[in-house]
C-alpha cells in the first residue's frame, strides 16, 4: 500500500512538473497579457485619448485630470501651472498611460512596463483618494464581504497579472523573447 502511494506521488510530481514547465514557458505570460489587453487596455487607451489635443499635444484636460490642485491654485489657468513638478507629472502620466499598456500587451520590455503600470495604478489610486476625494464606498476595504469596490478590490486584481509579468516576464510568445533570441544569435 505504501509503495503504491509513493508511486502515485512520483507520478503526480512528474505530471505537475511537466504542466508547470509547459505553462510557465508560454501560457501564463500570454494569459496575463491577454487579461490585461481584454480588461485594461481599452480603459487606459480611452483615458489617455482624453488627454491629447491632436497628435502628441497634451490637452488642458490632462492637467484637470492629473493636477487638479495645481490648476485650482492657478485660478483654472493651465498655462499658469508650474512646469515642475506638476507639468512633469502630467507629461509622464499622459505618456505613461499611453505607452506602457501597449508595451505590456506586445510583450516588449515587459518587466519594466509592468512595473511602471503597477506604479501608475498606485499613483492613480492615490490621486483618486487624495485629490478627487472619492467616497469610502468607492475606496472599499480589503477582507470585507464586498468584492466590488473600485479602488482596493478592483485595482488589486488589476495589479496581479502585472505583478506576474514583472516577476516572470512575458513568456515564450512575446517580442521580448524574439529580441532576446535575435540578440543571442547576433552576439553569440
UniProtKB/TrEMBL annotation:
Kindly state which keywords UniProt assigns to this record, in alphabetical order.
Membrane, Transmembrane, Transmembrane helix
Note whether Transmembrane occurs among the keywords.
yes
Q: Does this entry carry the keyword Transmembrane?
A: yes
The organism's superkingdom is given as Bacteria
Q: What Gene Ontology terms describe where this protein resides (cellular component)?
A: membrane
Q: Which residues cross the membrane?
A: 26-45
Protein name as it appears in the record: DoxX family protein
Show the taxonomic lineage. Answer: Bacteria, Pseudomonadati, Pseudomonadota, Alphaproteobacteria, Hyphomicrobiales
Amino acid at each position: 500500500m505504501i509503495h503504491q502511494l509513493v508511486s502515485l506521488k512520483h507520478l503526480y510530481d512528474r505530471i505537475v512538473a511537466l504542466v508547470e514547465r509547459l505553462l510557465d514557458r508560454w501560457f501564463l505570460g500570454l494569459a496575463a497579457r491577454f487579461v490585461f489587453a481584454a480588461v485594461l487596455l481599452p480603459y487606459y487607451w480611452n483615458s489617455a485619448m482624453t488627454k491629447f489635443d491632436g497628435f502628441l499635444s497634451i490637452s488642458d484636460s490632462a492637467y484637470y485630470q492629473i493636477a487638479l490642485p495645481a490648476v485650482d491654485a492657478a485660478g483654472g489657468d493651465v498655462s499658469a501651472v508650474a512646469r515642475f513638478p506638476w507639468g512633469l507629472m502630467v507629461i509622464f502620466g499622459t505618456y505613461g498611460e499611453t505607452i506602457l499598456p501597449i508595451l505590456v500587451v506586445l510583450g516588449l520590455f515587459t518587466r519594466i512596463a509592468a512595473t511602471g503600470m503597477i506604479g501608475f495604478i498606485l499613483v492613480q489610486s492615490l490621486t483618486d483618494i487624495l485629490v478627487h476625494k472619492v467616497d469610502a464606498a468607492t475606496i472599499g476595504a480589503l477582507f470585507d464581504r464586498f468584492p466590488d469596490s473600485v479602488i482596493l478590490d478592483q485595482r488589486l486584481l488589476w495589479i496581479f497579472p502585472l505583478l506576474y509579468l514583472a516577476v516572470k516576464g512575458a513568456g515564450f510568445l512575446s517580442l521580448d523573447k524574439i529580441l532576446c533570441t535575435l540578440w543571442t544569435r547576433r552576439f553569440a
